[in-house]
Amino acid sequence: MAKAGAPSRATGKASDRSDLTRQRLVDAAIETLKEYGYTGASARVIAQRAGVNQGLVFYHFGSVANLLLAALDAVSDERLQIYGTEVAEVTSPTQLVEAAEGIFKNDLDAGYITVLVEMIAGSSSTPGLGPEVAARIQPWRDFAQSSIESSLGDSPLSSVLPAKDVAHAVVALYLGLEMLSHLDGNAEPALKLFDHAKQLASLFEAMTTSSNPKEST
User: Fold this and answer.
1) Strand, coil or helix: what is 57?
2) What's the 3-state SS for 58-125?
């Protein structure tokens, strides 16, 4: 159960200081969000986990909300780099779904998406936090869009399914699946969806190949 202690008002991105204490606070904030949720991520709890005086939270970040945003930034930057590596060699819809499934399993096990989900939940109670979190989701949409465009290439599907719209749906679905898997304590329904998606992708590829003799030779 999340501990009490709602974070304070968000005022924008934190400063660029990168000393050891700052990094320890960011790391502690990430783990606190995973374990206690947004409402449990107080300055006292985070500072105690980091092994520093809680006044340093405000010295380095100005507010708890800004520290939590810095934690979200750190997680997002790391995950986007890993996602990029995972899909770098993807050339088909089936490969893209397989890569997405692997990423989902890894994120679920490590609790990375929990950080984003908790920040989204906290947006309803902290003034100014919503736009900050929304801005940090956009790179995920951009990444999804570029991956979809690369996997579809010049296939007929690319002309009827706008990659930007599909990317928005994919990100929303991904977050929803992670949230439900966390609440239910059961990832099996989500993994079954990936199985169905792979079957559909394979079917689409087969239909595309049969309709384009040049690709089958």
Assistant:
1) helix
2) HHHHCCHHHHHHHHHHHHHHHHHHHHHHHHCCCCCHHHHHHHHHHHHHHHHHHCHHHHHHHHHHHCCC
Return all residues near 14 (Cβ < 8 A) that are at least 6 apart. 60, 61, 62, 66, 67, 69, 70
C-alpha pair distances (Å), 70 with each of 66, 115, 116, 131, 162: 6, 11, 12, 14, 32
Entry field: residues in the chain: 217
133 domain-assigned: yes
Question: Is 81 inside a domain boundary?
Answer: yes
Q: Is residue 183 part of a domain?
A: yes
* pLDDT per position as a tens digit, 43-67: 999 999 999 999 999 999 999 999 9
Please state, as a whole number, how many other Cβ atoms lie within 10 Å of the Cβ of residue 125.
Answer: 11
CATH at 103: 1.10.357
Give the least confident one: 53-62, 95-104, 133-142, 149-158. 149-158
pLDDT tens digit sequence for 170-182: 888 888 888 888 7
Query: At residue 107, what is the residue type?
Result: D
Torsion over CA: 176, 179, 183, 187 (sign): positive
